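Data deposition worksheet. Section B asks for the primary sequence of the deposited chain exactly as it was used as input, without tags or linkers unless they were present during the calculation. Section C holds the resulting structure in C-alpha cell form. Section D is free text for depositor observations; keep each observation to a single sentence. Incomplete worksheets are returned to the depositor.
Section A, Depositor: J.P.
Section B:
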Amino acid sequence: MADQFPQMTPLVPRQLINGGEVTLRAAAALTLAYVASQAMCCPQAGDVDISLDFTKGSTTGMKFYIEESEDNVTFMPVGYVDGTRTIVIDEIALGAATATFLYRATKRRPWMRVQAKGLTDIAGSSLTIKAKPYFAG
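Section C:
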C-alpha cells in the first residue's frame, strides 16, 4: 500500500537535543507585507522558543504571528478557531536600534513557521528568526 502522506524532510534533526537552535529566517530586510519564514518540522517537540533578532532601521516596529500545520501545506495561525476568531498578532514598537525578543510557543502540530512584516518605512530594517525546540520526556 502506498504511503498516504508525503515524505517530509525535517529542518530539525532527530538527534537535536534540548536547547539546540535552527534558523528559520536568515537576516533579511522586512517588507510591508507578511513574509513567511521557512517551516520547521519537529513533531516530537513540545515547546519551542522563537527568537526574533530585530534591527529597526527606519520602521517604527514590526508585527508577527506563529502558524502551525499538519502537512506543511495548509498553515493556520496559532489561536485561530473555526475561521471566525481574530488572529492574535504581536506588535513590537522599538525605541532602540536593535533588540532580541524571545517567545515560547506550545506546539500542537508537527510543522510551524513565523510570518512577519514591518509597520512603516522598512529601509535599513532586518529580522532573523531562530527556533529552539524542547522535546518531551
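Section D:
Residues 1-10, 81-87 have pLDDT under 50 and may be disordered.
The longest strand covers residues 45-55.
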